[in-house]
Design brief:
The chain starts with a helix and ends with a strand. With about 250 residues, it is mainly β. A hairpin with a 7-residue loop joins strand 1 (about 25-40) and strand 2. It is about 10% helix and about 60% strand. The radius of gyration is 25 Å and the shape is elongated. The protein has a single domain (about 20-250), classed as Beta Barrel (Porin), CATH 2.40.160. The model is unreliable at about 1-20, about 40-45 and about 225-230 (pLDDT under 50). It has one helix and eleven strands; from the N terminus they run H-E-E-E-E-E-E-E-E-E-E-E.
Amino acid sequence: MKRLVLLTALLSSVLAAQAGDYTQAFGLQVGYANPIYRLNQPAEDNENKTALETTQLRGAKIGLVYDATFWKGFGCMLGLNYTGAGYVSKWEEFGYDLNGKPIAPTMPHPYEERVKYQFHQLELFVDWQYKFEIARNTWLILYTGPTIQCVVHYQQTNLIRAKASGEQVRQTIIGYLDYSDADIAHDLKRVNVTWGVGAGFQYDRYYLRGGYDFGLINPYNFANFNQVGLADRNTRGRLDQWQIKLGVYLWRN
């Protein structure tokens, strides 16, 4: 009987200690996002080599998070983010006429072109983390984990204007998620999966976290251009993302 009581007390103390380590919090975060579409394609000077073509987008993210610490600093953060990003190029000389015919280099170029990108995405993430307490209510954080991304909208707009007057003469819109001409690799998948690594700092209810997400799947619908008669091109690539986030826990225990 004494042994049973002693064992029960021991188990109760262990469970109580573990329960004392368990904390949870709900919060809000905002930050900077840098989604990067990477496309591997043959280099112009040598078809046996590959050159990495990138489209870098810049924008912001906002999301809701749930943070739990299970035992001695180990826990996880999970949440849902919205990321909105884009890019606008400078006006550059357009080397074609309005019928698509190349203009000779010795001839004046009457038109200029600018490219705009619009990108919107939802992200469901789980970050497994460890918090090192370096002072009272102050932690350093290391984390890693997967993210499921769903691209809601991704569009490219090409604007052409007359150099002399600045008047717009043409606008072309390309929807990357429903593009029918795979010859230029604009046919993309909506769903992407990444694995991220990062670090952060937390003081009391406030935190700063930054990291990089590596794309795990090919975001391009055509894995090989042999399907469309272009055997010398390959559409394998990744959708990566740099990000930095500032957050506050609105409730915690």
